[in-house]
């Protein structure tokens, strides 16, 4: 069976993750419950004429994909597969607001055109003139993993040799206000916001775009091999360990073979035991990492973890800022990512050097 | 009329997100489409909505658009003559 390799990465996030080596400029923001991306110089990647109708999520997706392509040193891919939880929510909000404000009259086309979930994948394909397979997965917190599974299967079945796969989400003001009302985002005016040692409900929210070039062959610039991805819709807290053991076993691995575990702590005290149980028990002797204090929580935040794991496998260095415990390994060969959102949409992703 | 032209330039820049263009960059007689501002067919729809929403003018004959949207000058003249609000 053909193996799948990560040969290029591109990350636009709430940290400075472009024009950097890794996370050397990362800063934890304890003062805000909704983190905004650090914008790159869009004009270097998109002409002003093309960018004037694009929402930030589209622009971030285009830049992240361009960074990944450049990193992989390729100019064309066979397929583009995108994961997104809320799609182009900013333009969706604009369009819906316009319907209400104008009593269903005077609807302008621009925000409607840009409001669909597959706008990002479509715009990337237009700019690259990629006429191959183009698919967008909208599966909540496993949107990115759904895209990954598709990409892996395409490569395994030799349907494609190089695939641009990514996760992208953006914050919209109205949706953010709704998430504050329903408790998905931590309450305003309750700073400092802590992700790892939180005592309150709700998450610190964020946004970002992470794209990767997956290919069927190992190259000089390969970051890692994508070994496996698994999605489980619902698990109880006490079922996670067994699910991980089973997932590892299907890849002929045991817990002791995992050199680092990346967990999706998002600051929501109501569901943190899904992670804490693992960190303090079965993976107590394993380096445990977290990332949503840097990226914020969003449906495709796990793509940021994927970027982080790929970087660790390539550089063999774990930045202090992402460590949950002090355990270290002399070499990092296998990394397991585990994420879930409010007890649903569990995903397990396995990378190896 | 001068105030209306200024208003139209501002509306066009804002509505069409012409990020790198300022009011003073648009001459009254510059073509809005093609070689001038380089607007396209989607922008034309946005301009039609501006006429309807802000000045109460409904374009019944799409062919009229070509002459009305030639420049800021022609737009302002048409709006002055036909506006209902």
UniProtKB/TrEMBL annotation, chain B:
- Name the PROSITE patterns for this protein: CARRIER
One short Pfam family name for this protein?
PP-binding
What superkingdom heads the lineage? Bacteria
User: What Gene3D superfamilies has UniProt attached to this entry?
Assistant: ACP-like (1.10.1200.10)
Q: Which InterPro entries match?
A: ACP-like_sf, PP-bd_ACP
Carrier domain span? 1-83
Q: This protein is called what?
A: Acyl carrier protein
